[in-house]
Amino acid sequence: MALDEQAAPSPVHFHDYHPTPADLRAEVVAGLALPQKRLSPKLFYDAAGSKLFDAICELPEYYPTRTEIGILRAHGAEMARRLGREALLVELGSGSSKKIRVLLEALRPAVYMPVDISREHLLRSAESLAAAFPGLQVHAACADYSVPFALPVDDHEHPRAAFFPGSSVGNFEPPEAERLLRRVGSILGPEGRLLIGVDLIKDRRVLEAAYNDADGVTAAFNLNLLARINRELDGSFDLDGFRHEAFFDADRSRIEMHLISARAQQVEVAGQTFAFREGESIHTECSYKYSIDGFHALARRAGYEAEQVWTDREPLFSVHCLVYRG
Fold first, then answer.
1. Within a 10 A sphere around the Cβ of 251, how many other Cβ atoms?
2. pTM of the model
3. What is the dihedral of CA 167, 4, 126, 102, to 10 degrees?
């Protein structure tokens, strides 16, 4: 990815790796050509999708966000001691600033570097945090962290730490998650620490309710992916011709989200035609759920040692401090 550094209208240094639109076209066309049509969940997060996800995080059924924030508030001081003060803190998939505010209050890093694929959302969040924490160096990187990229700031003065909230690691197939964690480790370097949120295995009813809310916000979030393709790739998706579906696959320990075609139809995208049968789906997201021991085994394969884990009482969710050993 090419890197372009821009001066934002604030104390924020903005580094643009230009992850879209060229990547968007290639990924969508390739995904819709598969026998099981598939689109990456990272494509959810245009400006509209990011706003919808923020709304999802406020829903009563969606426990991960409020539970993770509760864990951060209860144990933030201890987490800060583990990560080390005066660090260069990288946040992967920064999104909303609520969680990082809790951590920044406790940690007070020397440099904060949010990384997100959604430019507008990233800038708003980074500018808000720069205003809330005067004197904090903020370097916002618009990048796709699912592929290799180098940090835009060559800082070896401060210890490196990373924050990967929201159980976003669950959106990757386990071998992909292992490769991603290794890439993060290569950025952190030996003895670098990663604070990562991981959703836990629990009752099917709780899991499925979190992805099928009564107000239909998650359905709108899923369908916005088609609206984005229409806007940015000259698509002809009829949003009324697809419905949202999410279910828990216990054998694979994951939630699957799909968009189901309501009828036989053809859709134009970026000058190409794609046919859908009635009932055929586009697989838009997996969200793997882990046991604590299962996630620690994955982390070890990626070169990390589990240093500490915090959970809520039930427990629904977990936050892990990992040390990269290489």
1. 5
2. 0.90
3. 40
